[in-house]
Amino acid sequence: MATRLTDRFITSLALPERDQVIHYDGELTGFGLRITRAGAKAFILNYRAKRRERRYTIGSYPTWSVASARKKARDLRRQIDNGEDPMEQRHLDRAAETMADLAERYLEEHGPRKRSSSLRNDRQNIRNYILPALARRTVKDITFRDIDQLHQSMKAVPYQANRVLSLLSHMMAMASSKWGLREDNPCRGVIRFPEDRRERYLTEDEVKRIAGVMDKLGNQSAGNAVRLLLLTGARKGEVLAARWDQFDLERAYWHKSSAHTKQKRQHDMPLSAAAIDLLRAMHRESESIYLFPGRDGGHLKDLRSYWKRLRESAGINSDIRIHDLRHTFASLLASSGEPIAVVGRLLGHTQAHTTQRYTHLFERPLRDAVEKVGDLFNPAAGKSPGSQEVQDEP
Asked: Which H or E element spans position 354?
């Protein structure tokens, strides 16, 4: 039997294992809450009009409260009972959709398919850059020049400008190919600003300094998260959301389910003895299903404040981000001579080209290899090949 939708019920819902699940209201027919694997929640209304099944998205939760969404659903029901089709009217209204409308639709319909961190960045770029410049313009009237001018206005922050351009291009592609709001993508042809790939890894000395400082700082839970990031090269989101049932401490494996990896594929990672020792010590003290429980009953969401204190205490420059711990793990593997295929497998890469960014780090093992050959021809290391010892005749 369906349960009446309430705030308490909604906050108690677990994330679905598949793409999305709809929990229908036990009071109002067709009214429900859609929840995605990424945690996005939105109220919907299913109905039938003109012999067609329809699904009307009312709005996201908690932007829409349960009460306001239920009232909207009742209003829509009255329109349907009077022979109207709210979805058809919405399509007609979209002929004059503004960029603000497009942004809302993009976040509402495409946002649930994105990772939470990517969706957060999209929201920030829309709020800070796209809407201030284009909010009231209709989607069909946006031109190449409009996009290019916005991009050029951000030349002082070229990386951010390129991210905004990519987001706009995706929004416009969906507006033209999927939603029929225009016939082309005005972002095509806009020249991106040059970007130098950012390469920053912790040195072995910096790793040792961080390890020494962590024992002296408070919040050992956050400290253990940083330790696990360094020992596994996992992404921050994977570590913070990790559950104990993903770990086989006897066989020393971390079984990452597809729901928690960027590639949406299961990734089985072997763990070092140091990682297993850390996990066993944590497990003895743990009372949660999560390795790093948060205050709300879920898992720890962020490490920014702890990372800032740790970095400052260890005397590490501010240009090191938490994500650089993953790059550091890869760089230590590469510089020690591990094959690039092994590095990619441990990082969970599914495409070989993704790991190519670390190829320059193989210089040390490659140089050691050629020196071994060079030593064969180095007189100081022994006799040269092909030489013969000549003895004086008596």
From this structure: helix 352-355
| Whether pLDDT at 108 is above 80 | yes
Q: Give mean pLDDT, residues 371-378.
A: 63
Cα angle for residues 193, 196, 200 (degrees, 5° grid): 145
pLDDT tens digits, 325-342: 887 887 777 666 666 666
Among 38, 81, 77, residue whose Cα is nearest residue 58: 77
SS3 138: strand
Q: How far apart are CA 132 and CA 142, in angstroms?
A: 14
Cα–Cα distance for residue pair 371/194, rounded to 1 Å:
37
Calpha distance 9→18 (Å, rounded): 20
Q: What is the C-alpha separation between 344 and 322, in angstroms, rounded?
A: 19
348 vs 355: CA distance, rounded Å: 10
Phi, then psi, of 24 in degrees rounded to 5: -85, 150
Query: Which single residue is written with the structure tokens 């939105």?
Result: 42
Starting from the edge strand earliest in sequence, which strands make up the sheet with 41-49, in order? 20-24, 31-36, 41-49, 52-61
**Amino acid present at 93:** D
Q: Supply the DSSP symbol for 238.
A: H
Kindly indicate the confidence band of residue 268, based on its pLDDT and cuts at 50, 70 and 90: confident
- Does an H or E element contain 232, and which? helix 220-232
**What is the pLDDT confidence band of residue 207, given thresholds at 50, 70 and 90?**
confident
The answer to whether the bond into 112 is cis (omega within 30° of 0) is no
CB of 227 closer than 8 Å to CB of 325:
no
pTM comes to: 0.49
Q: Give the C-alpha separation, 369 to 382, whole Å.
A: 18
Q: Cα dihedral sign for 329, 332, 336, 341? A: positive
pLDDT at 393: 45
Q: What is the pLDDT of residue 86?
A: 87
Alpha-carbon distance 45 to 61, whole Å? 14
